[in-house]
Amino acid sequence: MRERVAEETYWLELTAPEIAAQAAPGQFVMVGFGASAWGIPFLPRPNSVAAVRGEHIGLLIRVYGAGSRRLTALKPGEEALVLGPLGTHFELNGARRILCVAGGVGLAPFLLLPAWPPLVSCGAEVRLLYGERQAAAVFDPGKLREISGLEAEIWTEDGSLGSHGRVTDGVDLNGVDLVLTCGPTPMLKAVRALAVEAGVACQLAVEEHMACGVGTCIGCAIETVDPETGEAGYSLVCSDGPVFPAERLRW
Ligand SMILES: Cc1cc2nc3c(=O)[nH]c(=O)nc-3n(C[C@H](O)[C@H](O)[C@H](O)COP(=O)(O)OP(=O)(O)OC[C@H]3O[C@@H](n4cnc5c(N)ncnc54)[C@H](O)[C@@H]3O)c2cc1C
Ligand code: FES
Hints:
Layout: E1 2-6, E2 9-15, H1 17-22, E3 28-32, E4 45-48, E5 51-53, E6 56-62, H2 66-71, E7 81-86, E8 97-103, H3 108-112, H4 117-122, E9 125-132, H5 141-148, E10 153-156, E11 163-164, E12 178-182, H6 185-198, E13 202-205, E14 221-225, E15 232-236, E16 243-245
Parallel strand pairs: 8-9, 8-12, 9-10, 10-11, 12-13
Antiparallel strand pairs: 1-2, 2-6, 3-4, 3-7, 5-6, 13-16, 14-15
């Protein structure tokens, strides 16, 4: 299934029973077409698992280049290579009030959150702030509600839909005991700074270009720090992440 949900943005459902049975919010899949498909990118591309519906997984994909363009042109019945679920996921750590801050297609992992069994069983309260540049890029709020059950508080930078400003303008950490965030790096840095300043636990789903997705090519290394020893080093976004606690990132 493939549906346009915003400008250059598509909702895709793929049949992938084993991935659907295991995926947790923040984890991703590598999706590609293998070496036989000449003329299209050889390497698979990472995409967050955005929903699980029976044997199907949902992906929210924005077109940036050849890989995402090819992926969003998938036709019913056509096959792709899908590897996953990969990487780390968000951890609730007993939180009761969770603030999710999403920028662009960084919305994807939060769509999976409400149906995630650990969240369902702990009954924590979730508030979702979702920012885009302008209205045309906003994921259809009706579809968002249908998929996730979430009512997002929408922010647009030009004020053409929802509140006017950056999504970080809506961050209020009063009473919040966990912040989860996913989106462009400048937004992640801003959210992290607000959480650190307020002393609120924060986990960030980080993006990097990836070649293998499983920790072998070392192409997705980022600077991190061991929070216990203070020792600086590197971590792989694909296998040590993509979700990192704020204190692990050397930003
Ligand atoms: C863990 C993880 C999860 C992700 N989840 C999603 C998801 O759920 N939905 C989704 O749409 N994307 C997601 N991405 C990003 C996605 O993998 C890239 O957008 C995709 O690889 C682009 O491939 P491409 O071949 O289309 O573009 P490329 O040909 O690789 O790039 C084309 C141009 O776009 C730029 N570009 C590429 N990616 C981005 C980006 N993310 N933001 C801004 N500019 C970019 C490149 O620098 C280049 O200039 C995720 C990435 C990671 C690491
Ligand atoms: S993408 Fe290859 S090591 Fe992370």
